[in-house]
C-alpha cells in the first residue's frame, strides 16, 4: 500500500480507447512497468474493469479501477462492485472522473469503501472549490482536471498554473496528508515538471500517452525532468 | 454463435452478490458448466465485468456481460465498452436490466453494437408494452421480468402467467425470430417448466440459484422438468 | 382535446432560452396565439414548468410541458408531477426530448399517465428504429428529430428526407392513428412544406423561431406554404 | 433578502404530494403565511416548479424552488433554469435533496448561480462528512437529513442528536456564517425545540405537516416552543 501511494506518481487512465483495450492494454501496461523499472517512478495503470484481472496478473505495478459504484454487494446488475475489482487485482480506483461524475453522497461512500478495503482513492475534481470540498472527505489523492483542458493537449500546468497552485493550497490547508495530482492536457516532461513545480505530487493522464506513436518513449519523456 | 443462442437456455445473472464474485464466480460458473455437460441444456453465466476474463478462460460455456454502455471507443472513463468485454471473452450481454435501465436511444445503440460484433443481445423488459416496443429493435432475446417479482421468490410464470403469455404473443407477432425468456422469481424445476409451457424459450435468473445452499443441485433441479 | 391535437400542428419548444423565459415567454406565446388566430393553424407552446401557469392563463392556445417525470404523487422533491403541470394548465407534454432522454420503462409510464389524464403526448425520437419502437406505445404524436440536426439550421426535411418518410411509414404500419412531427432544423415555410409533403402532420421546433428577430413574422413564414 | 434568510426559519418542502399541488399548494402556502404573521417566525414554502408563479403572487412569504439544474440558458428542454424560477417569483432553492441528489460539480455550479442571482441556497446533505464538504462551497443553509429518517416520523433531533450537533460543529468550524437546518422526521414543537437546542437555526420538513389533518395547527404546534 505505501508503495502504491509513493510519489511522484504517474497514473495512466486507459479510458475506453481501443489503443488501451484488451491486448493493447497489456502492452501499454507492460510499457508502463518497464518505465517504472528503468526510472523508479511510481507508474500506475487504470484499465477498464474487464481488463483488470489480466493486467494485474501480468504486470508488477499498481492497477487501479477507473470507477467504483457506491453500492454494497447485492442486486445491482451492471454495477462495479469494489469487492469484485479488488479480487480481480485492483489496488485503488479513480472516482468522480469528469467522464463519470458522481453524486456527492456517492463520492463519500466510495472514498470510505476504498479506505476500508485498503485501496487507494484518487478523487477527480474540476476546480479549486470542489477540490476543497472533497479534501474534507480524506481521499488519498485529489486530481484536479479543468474539464475544458481534458484531451486538449494544452497542459493545465502551463495554461492555468494558478488553478494547480490554488488547489494545492486549499487542499493542504484542510488536510496536508492528501496528495495532489495534476491532470488535463499533460503529456511532456516539461508539462509534468511544471506541475511538480506548482506543488503537485504527480500527474493523471490519458490520450497524450495512449495515442502516442511510442507510448513507452512518451512515458520516459514525461518523467524525464523530475 | 448458433450454439450460444441455443434454446432452451438458462442465463444465470451473477449480479453483484459476494456469492458470485471472484473465486465464487469461478465456482458458480464451473457448477453451471457441469450442469450443461450433464444435461445438455444451454447454460450461460453473466458475471460482473471484472470477472469476465477469468471465467471465459476457465469454463467452456457462454459468458455474457451484465451491461454494455452505448458508447464508442474514446474518452469514456468508467464506461463498459463492448470491444473490451468481447476481447475479455464475453459472447453476449444483458441490456436494460431492471437494475440498470437504459434510455431508449441507448438500447437501440446497444442492440445494434451487439449484432455488429456477433454477440448475443438479451434485452430485459418490465411488461408487455415495453416488450412489444423493443421487439421492433430485433434483439436475440427479450427477458420479461416484472420488477415487483425480482428477487421475490414468487415465480412470474405462476404468479402472472398472462404476462408471460402476452409477452410471447406480442413479440412473436412483431418478430417470430426473437426468443423470449422469463425472469423474476424463477428458481425450481416447476417454475421453469411453467415458463416453458407458457411459450418461453428459457429463463433468466439470479438469487434463487446464487443464494442456494448447493447451486449445482439447484440448477439441476431447475432444468429437471424440461 | 380534439382541438388540441388538430393537424397541421406547430409545436414551439421554448427550451431554456432567455428569449422564451418569463415575460419573454408570455410575449412569444402571445405571438403564437396571434398566428393561430390569423392562419387557423394549431399553434402549441411548450414553455418551462415555471411558466406554464402564467402562459395558460394569458393565451388561448394549447400549452404543453417540456417533460414529465414517471413518478406518482409522493416524495419526489424536484420532480415534474403530471398532476401539477396539468393543474397549472398544461394540455399535454413533450417526452423523451433529445435533451431529456428517458429510460424506456419511464417513457411507457409517461405515455400512459398522459392518456389517463386526457393530455396529449408528444414522444420525441432520434431515428426510424426508435420511432417504430415507441409507436407500439400509442402516443398521440411521434416527433422525429435526428440529434445531429437539432439547432443546426439544416432542416431534416431537406437534409434527410428518407428519415422523415421512413418514420412515417413504420409508424403508420404499426398504428395509423399516430401523427408524425418533424423536428430538427426546421425554420422556414419551405422546410415545413417539405416536411408535410413527406407525410408529416406538423413540426416541432425551437431556436429557428425563438432566436428570430421577429418571431411572429418567422411563424407566419413557417406556416405560409401549407 | 436579509428577511428571506432570517432565523429561526421553517422551510416547508411541498415535494410532489397531491396535498401540496395546485390549489392545495395555494392553501398550504396561505396557512404558512398566516402562521408567519401570527408568530413572527420566518416561514418559507418550497412548491413544485409549476406552482411557483401562482404562490409567489398569492402569499407574502418567501417561496423557494425545490431544485435548479446546473445549466446555463440555452437548449436544455425540461431542465429547471434558475432565471425562470426567479422570474416566476422564487427567492431561493433547495439543492441536492435526498430525492434529487446532484453531482458534486453541479452542486458547486448551483450554489454559485444562486449567489449571483441574490437567491438563497439551501443545500441538503446526508451526514456529517458531506455537510463538511459542502460547507466549503458557502451555501446560505445546510440542511442535514439522514435519509433513513426522511418521512419516518422519527425526528433526527431526537433519534440521532449527535448528527445534528456534529454537523453544526463541523460546518461552523469551516464557515460560521452558514446556518444549519435540521430535517428528517421533524413534525412537533418538541422536535423543533430539540433541533434548536442542538444548534440548528431552523428546520426543513414535509410530510409531517403536509399530511397533517390541519396543517396550520401543525405548523403552529411546530413553532410553539421556540
Q: What would you say this structure looks like, in words?
A:
Four copies of one chain form a homotetramer. With 226 residues, the first copy, chain A, is an alpha/beta fold. Chain A has a single domain, classed as TIM Barrel. Helix content of chain A is 43%, strand content 15%. Chain A is built from eleven helices and eight strands. In chain A, strands 2-1-8-7-6-5-4-3 form an eight-stranded parallel sheet. In chain A, strand 4, helix 5 (104-116) and strand 5 (120-125) form a beta-alpha-beta unit. In chain A, helix 2 packs across helix 3 (49-58) and helix 2 packs parallel to helix 11. Chain A starts with a helix and ends with a helix. The relative contact order of chain A is 0.15. The model of chain A has no long low-confidence stretch (mean pLDDT 94). Chains in contact: A-B, A-D, B-C, C-D. The A-B interface holds A 13, 15-18, 21-23, 48-54, 65-67, 71, 73-81, 83-85, 87-88, 90, 94, 97-100, 150-151, 206-207 and B 13, 15-18, 21-23, 48-54, 65-67, 71, 73-81, 83-85, 87-88, 90, 94, 97-100, 150-151, 206-207. Chains A, B, C, D: GO terms for molecular function: triose-phosphate isomerase activity. Chains A, B, C, D: It is found in: Cytoplasm. Chains A, B, C, D: It comes from Methanobacterium lacus (strain AL-21). Chains A, B, C, D: Belongs to the triosephosphate isomerase family.
Amino acid at each position: 500500500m505505501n508503495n502504491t501511494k509513493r510519489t511522484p506518481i504517474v497514473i495512466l487512465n486507459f479510458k475506453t480507447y481501443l489503443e488501451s483495450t484488451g491486448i493493447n492494454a497489456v502492452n501499454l501496461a507492460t510499457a508502463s512497468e518497464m518505465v517504472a523499472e528503468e526510472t523508479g517512478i511510481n507508474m500506475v495503470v487504470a484499465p477498464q474493469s474487464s481488463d483488470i484481472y489480466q493486467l494485474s496478473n501480468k504486470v508488477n505495478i499498481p492497477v487501479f479501477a477507473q470507477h467504483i459504484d457506491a453500492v454494497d454487494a447485492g442486486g445491482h446488475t451492471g454495477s462495479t462492485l469494489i469487492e469484485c475489482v479488488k479480487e480481480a487485482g485492483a489496488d485503488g480506483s479513480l472516482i468522480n472522473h469528469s467522464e463519470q461524475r458522481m453524486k456527492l453522497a456517492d463520492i463519500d461512500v466510495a472514498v470510505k469503501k476504498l479506505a476500508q478495503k485498503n485501496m487507494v482513492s484518487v478523487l477527480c475534481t474540476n476546480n479549486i472549490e470542489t477540490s476543497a470540498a472533497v479534501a474534507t472527505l480524506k481521499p488519498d489523492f485529489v486530481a484536479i482536471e479543468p474539464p475544458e483542458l481534458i484531451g486538449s493537449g494544452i497542459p493545465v500546468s502551463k495554461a492555468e498554473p494558478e488553478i494547480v497552485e490554488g488547489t494545492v493550497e486549499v487542499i493542504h490547508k484542510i488536510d496536508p496528508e492528501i496528495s495532489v495530482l495534476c491532470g488535463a492536457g499533460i503529456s511532456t516532461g516539461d508539462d509534468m515538471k511544471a506541475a511538480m513545480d506548482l506543488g503537485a505530487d504527480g500527474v493523471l493522464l490519458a490520450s497524450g500517452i495512449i495515442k502516442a506513436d511510442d507510448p513507452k518513449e512518451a512515458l520516459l519523456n514525461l518523467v524525464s525532468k523530475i
